[in-house]
Design goal:
The protein is α/β, with parallel strands linked by helices and about 240 residues long. The chain is built from 5 helices and 12 strands. Strand 8 and strand 9 form a beta hairpin. Helix 3 packs across helix 5. The longest helix is centred in the N-terminal third of the chain and has 23 residues. The two termini are about 30 Å apart.
């Protein structure tokens, strides 16, 4: 069973968390390279590392490498007035929003020690959120061709996206991850075309909006981690960090 270091970065700027992700990614890849040169000398091999970072970002829009800036509806000055940051990044997917009341998770896993299947990895990210929603009697689902977790529209309601997912892999080591709307202010999504989807039958939602009450985000976070643990079958090692 793999051991995963879980660190909660708290409320942190997107750039600072991104830099920290890249440091951990470089560390994991460095260990991987080192160990591959010593396959016949087990005693000098370094311990394999995996990380799972939780955090919450002040308002920020991020654009994936396959996205279009046309899906960002605010000018630079308008973003400045609203105190919203913006970054182009190297994950898959289009534009999304990160903000307060949202659980952001960044798994930095060496998939060589789990499974080397990107499709399966993304499905597991979705499944962890779907199982978390089920604990609140909400049926999460997938929509073919659209990565992320949705709540199916019924009785005239649109399909509603509650969790965005975008990942990047280097040497089978993952970074970026998911953004799960819990108590998120959904008004920020009015200034983008989320994930590039122009469709009256699709919108965004949050756990708070679906349940009609504010959630204890720490309780939700622990449920999410438990489901990741069950799916990926890892042991949790918690470590505090100050950035």
């Amino acid at each position: 069973m793999q051991k995963v270091t879980v660190q909660d970065l708290g409320r942190i700027s997107y750039k600072k968390a991104w830099d920290y992700q890249q440091e951990r990614l470089a560390e994991v890849i460095g260990i991987k390279k080192h160990n591959r040169t010593l396959e016949s000398n087990v005693s000098q091999r370094k311990a394999i590392k995996h990380y799972f970072l939780f955090c919450e970002h002040p308002p920020v829009y991020t654009l994936g490498k396959s996205g279009s800036e046309d899906n960002l509806l605010l000018s630079e000055s308008e973003r400045s007035d609203k105190d919203i940051e913006y970054f182009k990044i190297n994950r898959g997917g289009d534009i999304t929003f990160h903000g307060l009341g949202q659980i952001v998770g960044y798994p930095i896993f060496d998939l060589d020690h789990f499974f080397t299947d990107v499709h399966k990895y993304v499905r597991y990210l979705e499944e962890a959120i779907i199982r978390t929603l089920a604990e609140y009697n909400i049926e999460g689902t997938r929509i073919k061709g659209m990565t992320g977790v949705w709540i199916e529209g019924k009785n005239g309601q649109p399909n509603r996206k509650i969790c965005a997912i975008g990942v990047h892999l280097s040497r089978w080591v993952t970074m970026h991850g998911f953004a799960f709307n819990v108590n998120t202010d959904l008004n920020y999504f009015n200034y983008i075309i989320p994930c590039g989807i122009i469709d009256k039958d699709k919108t965004v939602t949050s756990l708070q909006q679906e349940l009609g009450r504010e959630l204890d985000i720490e309780i939700v976070k622990n449920k999410v981690l438990q489901h990741f643990q069950q799916l990926f079958e890892f042991e949790v090692f918690r470590m505090s960090v100050t950035l």
